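Schema walk-through. Below, the input block comes first and the output block second. Nothing else is stored per chain. Lengths vary across the set, and this one has 108 residues.
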Amino acid sequence: MTAKLYASPQRLPDLDVFTVPSEDIEPILDALTPAVRDPSPAKWMGLGDLVCNMRDGTRVEVHLYSTRQKQGAFSVGPYPNQVYYRGGTDSGIEQAIRNAYEHAQKGK
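--- output ---
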């Protein structure tokens, strides 16, 4: 999995694309839960992206959004065919990715 963050609602620095350490994949995915499909998503500001390369060779794109509301948002799939979900919180999602970035930097 790779991750990147931009346009932090907390005004923290952007994070360029980095490889997520394996021990941080589950916490990042957990930060997106509980998730419910959103049939009529708003025009949220982008927060970041995740790219998951699956064992079968497929690539799954997850686009993260800043809702500035209690519940976070993300979409799965390539544009324009992505499916939108509400889940997690903006701050929880961002923090999980920032934690992974710190671990990735320590591992270099």
